[in-house]
Design a protein that fits this description.
The chain is α/β, with parallel strands linked by helices. The chain is built from 14 helices and five strands. 24% of the residues are buried. The chain is elongated and about 85 Å long. 63% of the residues lie in helices and 8% in strands.
Protein backbone atom coordinates (compact mmCIF):
# COMPACT_ATOMS: atom_id res chain seq x y z
CA UNK A 1 0.00 0.00 0.00
CA UNK A 2 1.37 3.43 -0.86
CA UNK A 3 0.78 6.41 1.39
CA UNK A 4 -2.60 7.99 0.73
CA UNK A 5 -3.97 4.90 -1.03
CA UNK A 6 -7.74 4.39 -0.88
CA UNK A 7 -8.97 0.91 -0.07
CA UNK A 8 -12.16 -0.74 1.18
CA UNK A 9 -12.01 -2.53 4.52
CA UNK A 10 -14.53 -4.52 6.54
CA UNK A 11 -15.40 -2.52 9.70
CA UNK A 12 -14.40 -5.49 11.89
CA UNK A 13 -10.88 -5.65 10.43
CA UNK A 14 -9.59 -2.40 11.93
CA UNK A 15 -7.30 -2.30 14.95
CA UNK A 16 -9.34 -0.13 17.37
CA UNK A 17 -6.68 0.26 20.05
CA UNK A 18 -6.75 4.06 19.71
CA UNK A 19 -10.54 4.32 20.13
CA UNK A 20 -10.08 4.91 23.87
CA UNK A 21 -8.73 8.38 23.02
CA UNK A 22 -11.94 9.57 21.36
CA UNK A 23 -15.44 10.33 22.64
CA UNK A 24 -18.09 8.18 21.00
CA UNK A 25 -21.35 8.92 22.83
CA UNK A 26 -24.41 6.89 21.93
CA UNK A 27 -26.20 9.92 20.46
CA UNK A 28 -23.31 10.55 18.06
CA UNK A 29 -23.32 6.91 16.95
CA UNK A 30 -27.07 7.05 16.36
CA UNK A 31 -26.68 10.23 14.30
CA UNK A 32 -23.95 8.58 12.22
CA UNK A 33 -26.13 5.51 11.64
CA UNK A 34 -28.89 7.78 10.33
CA UNK A 35 -26.41 9.58 8.06
CA UNK A 36 -24.97 6.35 6.65
CA UNK A 37 -28.43 4.95 5.97
CA UNK A 38 -29.64 8.09 4.24
CA UNK A 39 -26.56 9.25 2.34
CA UNK A 40 -23.96 6.53 2.59
CA UNK A 41 -20.33 7.12 3.57
CA UNK A 42 -19.36 10.65 2.53
CA UNK A 43 -15.74 10.69 3.74
CA UNK A 44 -13.20 7.90 4.10
CA UNK A 45 -11.84 6.97 7.50
CA UNK A 46 -8.12 7.45 8.09
CA UNK A 47 -5.97 4.48 9.04
CA UNK A 48 -2.33 3.43 9.09
CA UNK A 49 -0.50 0.14 8.65
CA UNK A 50 0.06 -2.54 6.11
CA UNK A 51 -1.23 -5.96 5.18
CA UNK A 52 -3.83 -7.27 7.59
CA UNK A 53 -2.85 -4.88 10.40
CA UNK A 54 -4.65 -1.57 9.89
CA UNK A 55 -4.89 0.84 12.82
CA UNK A 56 -7.88 3.19 12.73
CA UNK A 57 -6.80 6.79 13.38
CA UNK A 58 -9.88 8.83 12.49
CA UNK A 59 -13.46 7.79 11.86
CA UNK A 60 -14.35 5.78 14.96
CA UNK A 61 -18.02 6.81 14.87
CA UNK A 62 -18.25 5.85 11.20
CA UNK A 63 -16.65 2.47 11.95
CA UNK A 64 -19.02 1.74 14.85
CA UNK A 65 -22.09 2.84 12.95
CA UNK A 66 -21.09 0.78 9.90
CA UNK A 67 -20.65 -2.29 12.11
CA UNK A 68 -24.07 -1.82 13.71
CA UNK A 69 -25.97 -1.55 10.43
CA UNK A 70 -24.02 -4.41 8.83
CA UNK A 71 -22.04 -2.64 6.11
CA UNK A 72 -19.67 -5.09 4.41
CA UNK A 73 -16.91 -2.56 3.83
CA UNK A 74 -16.09 1.12 4.32
CA UNK A 75 -13.61 3.27 2.40
CA UNK A 76 -10.35 4.22 4.07
CA UNK A 77 -7.26 6.22 3.20
CA UNK A 78 -4.11 4.46 4.40
CA UNK A 79 -1.03 6.20 5.78
CA UNK A 80 2.28 4.38 5.48
CA UNK A 81 3.68 5.75 8.76
CA UNK A 82 2.15 3.97 11.72
CA UNK A 83 4.31 4.74 14.75
CA UNK A 84 1.66 4.72 17.48
CA UNK A 85 2.92 7.85 19.24
CA UNK A 86 2.75 9.83 16.02
CA UNK A 87 -0.72 8.48 15.32
CA UNK A 88 -1.97 9.63 18.74
CA UNK A 89 -0.83 13.18 18.00
CA UNK A 90 -2.32 12.85 14.51
CA UNK A 91 -5.76 12.15 16.01
CA UNK A 92 -5.63 15.64 17.51
CA UNK A 93 -4.11 17.33 14.44
CA UNK A 94 -6.82 15.90 12.17
CA UNK A 95 -9.69 17.02 14.38
CA UNK A 96 -8.72 20.02 16.53
CA UNK A 97 -10.38 22.54 14.22
CA UNK A 98 -13.83 21.08 14.82
CA UNK A 99 -15.52 18.88 17.36
CA UNK A 100 -12.49 17.89 19.44
CA UNK A 101 -13.27 17.93 23.16
CA UNK A 102 -11.12 18.95 26.11
CA UNK A 103 -11.19 15.45 27.61
CA UNK A 104 -9.85 14.03 24.33
CA UNK A 105 -6.95 16.47 24.38
CA UNK A 106 -6.23 15.41 27.95
CA UNK A 107 -6.32 11.70 27.15
CA UNK A 108 -3.92 12.02 24.23
CA UNK A 109 -1.48 14.13 26.24
CA UNK A 110 -1.54 11.69 29.17
CA UNK A 111 -0.88 8.76 26.82
CA UNK A 112 2.08 10.48 25.21
CA UNK A 113 3.62 11.54 28.53
CA UNK A 114 2.83 8.67 30.90
CA UNK A 115 2.70 5.71 28.50
CA UNK A 116 5.03 6.69 25.68
CA UNK A 117 7.54 8.58 27.82
CA UNK A 118 7.65 11.90 25.99
CA UNK A 119 8.50 15.09 27.84
CA UNK A 120 5.79 17.74 27.93
CA UNK A 121 7.78 20.08 25.72
CA UNK A 122 8.08 17.30 23.12
CA UNK A 123 4.33 16.66 23.23
CA UNK A 124 3.75 20.39 22.73
CA UNK A 125 5.87 20.25 19.58
CA UNK A 126 4.07 17.15 18.29
CA UNK A 127 0.66 18.74 18.83
CA UNK A 128 1.77 22.18 17.64
CA UNK A 129 0.78 23.86 20.90
CA UNK A 130 2.54 25.75 23.71
CA UNK A 131 4.01 23.69 26.56
CA UNK A 132 1.74 25.45 29.09
CA UNK A 133 -1.29 24.22 27.12
CA UNK A 134 0.00 20.67 27.52
CA UNK A 135 0.84 21.14 31.19
CA UNK A 136 -2.64 22.44 32.11
CA UNK A 137 -4.40 19.52 30.47
CA UNK A 138 -2.08 16.93 31.95
CA UNK A 139 -2.60 18.38 35.42
CA UNK A 140 -6.38 18.35 34.97
CA UNK A 141 -6.68 14.76 33.75
CA UNK A 142 -4.48 13.57 36.61
CA UNK A 143 -6.99 15.05 39.06
CA UNK A 144 -9.98 13.28 37.50
CA UNK A 145 -11.37 10.01 38.82
CA UNK A 146 -11.05 7.24 36.16
CA UNK A 147 -14.83 6.62 36.33
CA UNK A 148 -15.50 10.27 35.54
CA UNK A 149 -13.15 10.11 32.56
CA UNK A 150 -14.95 7.06 31.19
CA UNK A 151 -18.41 8.56 31.81
CA UNK A 152 -17.41 11.67 29.86
CA UNK A 153 -15.86 9.59 27.09
CA UNK A 154 -18.99 7.50 26.51
CA UNK A 155 -21.35 10.48 26.82
CA UNK A 156 -22.93 9.85 30.23
CA UNK A 157 -21.56 13.21 31.39
CA UNK A 158 -21.36 16.41 29.32
CA UNK A 159 -17.89 17.00 27.80
CA UNK A 160 -17.74 20.37 29.55
CA UNK A 161 -17.98 18.73 32.98
CA UNK A 162 -14.31 17.72 33.06
CA UNK A 163 -12.98 21.10 34.12
CA UNK A 164 -15.36 21.77 37.05
CA UNK A 165 -15.23 18.17 38.32
CA UNK A 166 -11.43 18.32 38.40
CA UNK A 167 -11.80 21.04 41.05
CA UNK A 168 -13.36 18.55 43.47
CA UNK A 169 -11.50 15.99 45.61
CA UNK A 170 -11.31 12.79 43.59
CA UNK A 171 -13.24 10.88 46.26
CA UNK A 172 -16.27 13.17 45.75
CA UNK A 173 -16.27 13.28 41.94
CA UNK A 174 -18.23 10.07 41.34
CA UNK A 175 -21.08 11.18 43.64
CA UNK A 176 -21.19 14.55 41.90
CA UNK A 177 -21.18 12.78 38.55
CA UNK A 178 -24.17 10.70 39.65
CA UNK A 179 -26.02 13.88 40.66
CA UNK A 180 -25.24 15.43 37.26
CA UNK A 181 -26.62 12.39 35.44
CA UNK A 182 -29.67 12.09 37.70
CA UNK A 183 -30.72 15.71 37.25
CA UNK A 184 -29.44 16.06 33.66
CA UNK A 185 -27.41 19.16 34.48
CA UNK A 186 -25.86 21.29 31.77
CA UNK A 187 -22.26 22.50 31.82
CA UNK A 188 -23.09 25.95 33.22
CA UNK A 189 -25.14 24.35 35.98
CA UNK A 190 -22.31 21.96 36.80
CA UNK A 191 -19.91 24.87 37.25
CA UNK A 192 -22.37 26.54 39.64
CA UNK A 193 -23.05 23.35 41.57
CA UNK A 194 -19.34 22.66 42.08
CA UNK A 195 -18.88 26.24 43.29
CA UNK A 196 -21.72 25.75 45.79
CA UNK A 197 -20.25 22.47 47.05
CA UNK A 198 -16.79 23.99 47.51
CA UNK A 199 -18.26 26.92 49.46
CA UNK A 200 -20.50 24.75 51.66
CA UNK A 201 -19.76 25.30 55.34
CA UNK A 202 -20.41 21.76 56.61
CA UNK A 203 -21.04 18.15 55.50
CA UNK A 204 -24.82 18.54 55.85
CA UNK A 205 -24.85 21.34 53.28
CA UNK A 206 -22.66 19.29 50.94
CA UNK A 207 -25.01 16.31 51.21
CA UNK A 208 -27.97 18.57 50.42
CA UNK A 209 -26.19 19.96 47.35
CA UNK A 210 -25.41 16.44 46.10
CA UNK A 211 -28.83 15.02 46.93
CA UNK A 212 -30.95 17.96 45.73
CA UNK A 213 -28.84 19.69 43.13
CA UNK A 214 -31.77 21.35 41.36
CA UNK A 215 -33.11 22.80 44.60
CA UNK A 216 -29.63 23.94 45.65
CA UNK A 217 -29.18 25.74 42.33
CA UNK A 218 -32.63 27.26 42.64
CA UNK A 219 -31.88 28.64 46.11
CA UNK A 220 -28.51 29.95 45.06
CA UNK A 221 -30.02 31.46 41.92
CA UNK A 222 -32.69 33.29 43.90
CA UNK A 223 -29.96 34.79 46.07
CA UNK A 224 -27.80 35.80 43.11
CA UNK A 225 -30.75 37.45 41.36
CA UNK A 226 -31.14 40.06 44.10
CA UNK A 227 -30.24 43.38 42.47
CA UNK A 228 -27.82 45.22 44.76
CA UNK A 229 -26.98 47.96 42.28
CA UNK A 230 -28.97 50.54 44.28
CA UNK A 231 -27.43 49.39 47.60
CA UNK A 232 -24.24 51.02 48.93
CA UNK A 233 -21.25 48.72 48.59
CA UNK A 234 -20.64 48.61 52.36
CA UNK A 235 -24.08 47.00 52.81
CA UNK A 236 -23.63 44.19 50.27
CA UNK A 237 -22.27 41.74 52.83
CA UNK A 238 -25.16 42.61 55.16
CA UNK A 239 -27.66 41.68 52.46
CA UNK A 240 -25.80 38.44 51.71
CA UNK A 241 -25.77 37.50 55.40
CA UNK A 242 -29.54 37.97 55.62
CA UNK A 243 -29.92 35.79 52.52
CA UNK A 244 -27.75 33.10 54.11
CA UNK A 245 -29.94 33.06 57.22
CA UNK A 246 -32.99 32.53 55.00
CA UNK A 247 -31.31 29.63 53.15
CA UNK A 248 -30.24 27.95 56.39
CA UNK A 249 -33.79 28.32 57.71
CA UNK A 250 -35.06 26.61 54.55
CA UNK A 251 -32.56 23.75 55.01
CA UNK A 252 -33.59 23.30 58.64
CA UNK A 253 -37.27 23.24 57.68
CA UNK A 254 -36.59 20.71 54.91
CA UNK A 255 -34.57 18.43 57.21
CA UNK A 256 -37.20 18.65 59.96
CA UNK A 257 -40.03 17.73 57.59
CA UNK A 258 -38.36 14.35 57.00
CA UNK A 259 -38.49 13.52 60.72
CA UNK A 260 -35.62 12.99 63.11
CA UNK A 261 -36.05 9.30 63.85
CA UNK A 262 -35.49 7.61 67.18
CA UNK A 263 -33.29 9.30 69.79
CA UNK A 264 -32.45 8.75 73.43
CA UNK A 265 -33.36 11.26 76.18
CA UNK A 266 -29.84 12.69 76.25
CA UNK A 267 -29.89 13.42 72.51
CA UNK A 268 -33.34 14.94 72.76
CA UNK A 269 -32.25 17.23 75.59
CA UNK A 270 -29.16 18.33 73.66
CA UNK A 271 -31.25 19.06 70.57
CA UNK A 272 -33.81 21.06 72.54
CA UNK A 273 -31.00 23.12 74.07
CA UNK A 274 -29.38 23.67 70.65
CA UNK A 275 -32.69 24.75 69.11
CA UNK A 276 -33.36 27.11 71.98
CA UNK A 277 -29.93 28.70 71.68
CA UNK A 278 -30.31 29.05 67.92
CA UNK A 279 -33.79 30.55 68.27
CA UNK A 280 -32.60 33.09 70.85
CA UNK A 281 -29.57 34.04 68.77
CA UNK A 282 -31.66 34.43 65.60
CA UNK A 283 -34.23 36.56 67.40
CA UNK A 284 -31.49 38.70 68.92
CA UNK A 285 -29.65 39.03 65.58
CA UNK A 286 -32.78 40.03 63.66
CA UNK A 287 -33.77 42.45 66.44
CA UNK A 288 -30.32 44.06 66.24
CA UNK A 289 -30.66 44.33 62.47
CA UNK A 290 -34.04 46.07 62.77
CA UNK A 291 -32.64 48.39 65.45
CA UNK A 292 -29.73 49.31 63.18
CA UNK A 293 -32.19 49.96 60.36
CA UNK A 294 -34.36 52.16 62.58
CA UNK A 295 -31.37 54.11 63.84
CA UNK A 296 -30.26 54.71 60.28
CA UNK A 297 -33.77 55.85 59.31
CA UNK A 298 -33.89 58.19 62.28
CA UNK A 299 -30.54 59.70 61.47
CA UNK A 300 -31.59 60.26 57.89
CA UNK A 301 -34.83 61.91 59.03
CA UNK A 302 -33.02 64.29 61.37
CA UNK A 303 -30.54 65.33 58.70
CA UNK A 304 -33.29 66.22 56.21
CA UNK A 305 -35.58 68.07 58.65
Amino acid sequence: MSEGQFIHVAPSKFDLSLARLRRCPRTAIEAMISSLERRGQLNPVVAAGHGQHIILVDGFKRQQAASIIGMDKISAVILRHYDRSVLKALIYLLNHNGGFELIEECLIIRELVEKDGFRQVEVATMMERHKSWVSRRLEMVRRLNPQIIEDIRVGLLPPGSARPLARLPECNQVDMGAAIQRDKLKTEEIHRLVDLWRKAANPEQKRFIMGSSRKALELAGADSQVDLSAVPVHLHNFFKTVGSIERFAHLLKRSSSKGLGAMNPQSEAMLVAALGAAENMCREAISCAYSALNRKGGASGESTA
